[in-house]
Amino acid sequence: MGASFDTPEDNKVFADENSFGFSLLSDTDTRVGEMYQVKRRPDDERANYPLRIAYLIDPDGTIRRAHEVTDTAGFASEVVRDLERLQGA
Questions:
Q1: CB-based contact 50:39 (threshold 8 Å)
Q2: Which pLDDT tens digit goes with each residue over 61-74?
Q3: Could you please report the per-residue DSSP string of 13-55?
């Protein structure tokens, strides 16, 4: 699942344009962003955008790993490696 501070309509357009195979949460009131500590400080020039952090969450809801996403093309392989380590593969 992904999340952004955008409206459901904007998220749908973005997801359709990028052929996402997952849902996007529209966190327009930024409450979820606050809980996951991705909301930027009000004086940040990009305050309207969440930080790019990917969380690996187990079936019990425990966050096992957090990835600050700086390389959108390469971070998925890092997440897969972490998942395999957590599964003992």
A1: yes
A2: 999 999 999 887 88
A3: HHHHHTT-SS-EEE-TT-HHHHHTT-PPPTTSTTTTS---EEE
> Which distant-in-sequence residues (6+ apart) come within 8 Å of 51 by Cβ?
37, 38, 39, 40, 68
Provide the terminal-to-terminal Cα distance of the chain, rounded to the nearest Å: 24
Residues 6+ apart with CB under 8 A from 68: 51, 52, 53
Does the global pTM surpass 0.90? no
Please return the burial class of 74, using the count of CB atoms within 10 Å of its CB with bins 0-12, 13-18 and 19+. exposed
